[in-house]
User: Fold these one by one.
Assistant:
Number 1:
Amino acid sequence: MEMEIEGGSVTRILMGVSESTIKGHPHASISSRGAFDWTIQKIVRYNTSAFKLLFLHVQVPDEDGFDDMDSIYASPEDFKSLMNRDRAKGLHLLEYFVTRCHEIGVSCEAWIKKGDPKEVICHEVKRVQPDLLVVGSRGLGPFQRVFVGTVSEFCVKHAECPVITIKRSADEAPQDPVDD
Amino acid sequence: MEMEIEGGSVTRILMGVSESTIKGHPHASISSRGAFDWTIQKIVRYNTSAFKLLFLHVQVPDEDGFDDMDSIYASPEDFKSLMNRDRAKGLHLLEYFVTRCHEIGVSCEAWIKKGDPKEVICHEVKRVQPDLLVVGSRGLGPFQRVFVGTVSEFCVKHAECPVITIKRSADEAPQDPVDD
């Protein structure tokens, strides 16, 4: 009963990562960072050559743009500059994770898609067929979940690969637990 | 931003394992074996010294005994022999996984508890505080789930550690998909 481990192929872990929703917090969300740290510490460990991390950031086209604006009036030029700013923010987010992977010595890929995060993540699972999907979660209670929805619950049900949800630890929760 | 991996401590993975419900099939359920194989191939890989597997088998006190009997009449002695037989079956199940771990070279522990599997698994997570819980799943549709309940769904919601559900692959499903 010899166990066969596919020698050549690495374990490919897809991670859905998001920006922080906390104002003035320019980086990865608390739960995305938590999920990344957990994956490195508990799964990858020092066996860096056996794993490849795939970072997917999904931008929501409408919501993202107006969050920080005082007015909803906008010219086509405003939209264009918003879109560029969004794109820059998304790239900055991915850069954070890619840089950390380089420091640790684990190979990675990263890309941005637009759409509904839960739908896009499940679609990308179908397309890239990772061995495992890791998503962070705010760990909200049932009452809060009704209003904000949770990407992780949807992915656990619908993604076509094993899914692991890493809950944000209680001591890292911001003042408003819906923020991240 | 140096990544700290706790040098001394291994990643402890708790696996809930069950016997096959298929008649004349004396061993581990298809989904338990699938979850074990996946964990070794995709997570542990050749880094065997960095992981410890903890096998928990939960026996349901009432249901187990009568499955293979032609009659429901039983004396106290019958009950005793049933209980012994159950215990032997449970040990045999754990022996299967322990033997495979020894062959692979990954350290492990195994134990049996009585009770409702989903409740006991979550209780044991609280007690032994593993880094990760892995449970197999038959991958039933919503209609079948209503009648059989699923341990994995309960654990994803209630276990106090990250949980990974490994669905049985479609080509391994027995004639009756509720069997395992």
Number 2:
Amino acid sequence: MRALFPGRFQPFHKGHLAVVKWSLERVDELVIVVGSAQESHTLQNPMTAGERVLAIRRALEDEGIDLRKVYIIPVPDILMNSAWVAHVRTYVPPFEAVVTRNPLVKVLFEEAGYEVLEPPPFGREKYVATNIRALMALGDPKWEEMVPRAVAEIIKELGIIRRMRELSKRD
Amino acid sequence: MRALFPGRFQPFHKGHLAVVKWSLERVDELVIVVGSAQESHTLQNPMTAGERVLAIRRALEDEGIDLRKVYIIPVPDILMNSAWVAHVRTYVPPFEAVVTRNPLVKVLFEEAGYEVLEPPPFGREKYVATNIRALMALGDPKWEEMVPRAVAEIIKELGIIRRMRELSKRD
Amino acid sequence: MRALFPGRFQPFHKGHLAVVKWSLERVDELVIVVGSAQESHTLQNPMTAGERVLAIRRALEDEGIDLRKVYIIPVPDILMNSAWVAHVRTYVPPFEAVVTRNPLVKVLFEEAGYEVLEPPPFGREKYVATNIRALMALGDPKWEEMVPRAVAEIIKELGIIRRMRELSKRD
Amino acid sequence: MRALFPGRFQPFHKGHLAVVKWSLERVDELVIVVGSAQESHTLQNPMTAGERVLAIRRALEDEGIDLRKVYIIPVPDILMNSAWVAHVRTYVPPFEAVVTRNPLVKVLFEEAGYEVLEPPPFGREKYVATNIRALMALGDPKWEEMVPRAVAEIIKELGIIRRMRELSKRD
Amino acid sequence: MRALFPGRFQPFHKGHLAVVKWSLERVDELVIVVGSAQESHTLQNPMTAGERVLAIRRALEDEGIDLRKVYIIPVPDILMNSAWVAHVRTYVPPFEAVVTRNPLVKVLFEEAGYEVLEPPPFGREKYVATNIRALMALGDPKWEEMVPRAVAEIIKELGIIRRMRELSKRD
Amino acid sequence: MRALFPGRFQPFHKGHLAVVKWSLERVDELVIVVGSAQESHTLQNPMTAGERVLAIRRALEDEGIDLRKVYIIPVPDILMNSAWVAHVRTYVPPFEAVVTRNPLVKVLFEEAGYEVLEPPPFGREKYVATNIRALMALGDPKWEEMVPRAVAEIIKELGIIRRMRELSKRD
């Protein structure tokens, strides 16, 4: 069975990694959908889709996850919820299930007839992307403990922290 | 060095595969950009982006190419040539060069300051996507010899031939 | 005279029905424009355009309104207020007036030279779409009294209440 | 059962009317989808969506067809065939089948799991929209015999012939 | 009176310049609308909107035309003819007339209630943008005589000839 | 050197005028980019792009600024920050620098390799567009002192105050 795991991954944190591992114990192949691919350079969405693809890829390699079992595919938004499943389906190989806890994603895929796999709330209280981004914008290094080691490295290498600190300045 | 290899890959044929191998002798990582990602279900563009991603992936695996050196990323069209390079750049990891023989792609990436690597015209006379699609629509099995074995299999498995034969009927 | 009556109709309530009746006493034909047609599956816009068209149609039939005097036409948003009147005009038969109390709609149609018919604020304090949607999301059946009987039936038949309750869950 | 009947209806001719009648003998309700709604003012697509809605409505009334069994809904194009069914579905009430002879429409709805009803080729050799438009642009009144009487009247009333004759002039 | 003069100006030639002069004898201010602003880097549309703005500006200055009487404003396409006038109107100061010989432009502005000023066919047989572009792509310097001197200079300075020669190569 | 000065100019106020003058002491030509060109008829964005172009033009003329050194070019939004610089570049003549104090604009142009010229915060406490628009919507004439005289005149002439007062009414 092939399943989707959609998210914005701004950034890809340890909770996301736990979901990937949990999923790979249940499905043959996992398609990580990097959503809102067109967004970047804001405090809410600091990284480009390509930067997120790179960070996820490095994290998976660093964790020794078999890349032959994973696809990482950026998908831009479409401003029509009722066509979103069909839109995503265009960008990815055929799949049978979706891994998500998000209410909107669940409703849309259920109405489209897909199976929904709900992962446990891995470290939900600790790994919250909003908090991680707030620390990044403040330049507080505590964000580094919340993401896989390889993600922290690539984020620093790509200059994302400097970008976020600039973006958080006043006009 | 990381390089892009953009194409529509309708379908991914033996000439494309030769370019991938040629590129991987020259660069560290190759990003295969599956262009016109929004197109499908026409005789000119029969496969969805996700179907093309799957076909390319299977071909690379079948050829024993190291997946850690390759990214396969679908990118939709943007109706503005002068912003196309920046648009593509959003979807992919940072890169320094582009592998192409296409005049428009060359002009756009050169004007944007990228290095262009021009591969030899591998089997240009034999592997022409337009001809391959014509054979597919006719149901003539000669198309199978023009694509990597794994691509032929996945195309049949996905029902692309049946789709093309239906699409070529008269109203 | 033919007039437009634009709204989002999320959902079509008794105040809307009163406006339709008021209008049909003043004009020969009424075009009900179901706006923001691309929106659905959110707490703010739960129903698809087609579901809203169906609900309105059933309400009009149930009330014995002559369907030959009414058009129900979904229109998606255009992100340009100054071209919105021309955009709407494309989707509907020629018209001379617009029925509205909305300040933006009034300004845009007045600047375009159309007559504006301002209906009385029918049950404004009782029939507020925001409140109706809040009750629907809570599963509180009081919303049913605020919409025409046929609308309540079709909303339940289409599973809109279940959809809204799912959407209002936490991640 | 509710079924869709999609077309561009540039203009709605006697062959289209025959399909509507044929369909209403087989389904409870018919949704006439006026496609390419955004197109108008060209020789290929002379009428706006609203003008086409009006022409179809008048033809149905003139033929004594019960309007309670028919929906006429304009739908703009989406540049993604694989999401087109979901896009159309947003604009219309729930349906189970589609009435069409068009190969692309058939493939897309079949892949989406809908039943396809194929009507006979009513007067295919006589009622060809391309020919009708050519006569209209030439100002040759023979086009009038090819469309329902009410359509001919509304086309003349709306000034479509004059528009087409202007558009066919040389720069 | 203020009037529009819409065109693609690929490139701005001596016929266009004659229309500008003819117009400025009849109206107080002229708004030159550089249409299809999103197009560039093709043989049909080689120059970006900004390059065309620059070329027109230089030509007007070189001819001693008072810049206080002219606006040069790029406008992207909108894929909806019936909303095009409203779309253009958004980008430009209020105006009363349009200068054009193009049938579609005439029909659209006349239906919107604007006055149409039809200029004489200045050197129609000599100054044809299609022919000028063909000469440019061939590298034949005869194109230079067909455009104002300042336009020829800026085209060479911007590297447009080299771009067109590259674009006209075979894959 | 040619530089860009991007803004929304809702409306163009005395602080903006000071930046234009400051820039023209440092660069040869200034391109005033009227951003969010597609927005209008809201309290946040009351004026169309064309109305803003007209207001800026009148202000520059009234101040005796040489129009041969200035371009005023409307540019619509693109929903992709990482492609925004390339998008803007399409609409304007070639340039080397950008005049801005906006953090996002700085980050985007710096990442694209452009020089950023940061003007002093001219009358920052006095000339705040948000406050000016609030006064305009209230009908408080104090806004007139905050914009160049010619801008105040054209705003009144175009009926912008009346439009804003209408838009600020309750439904």
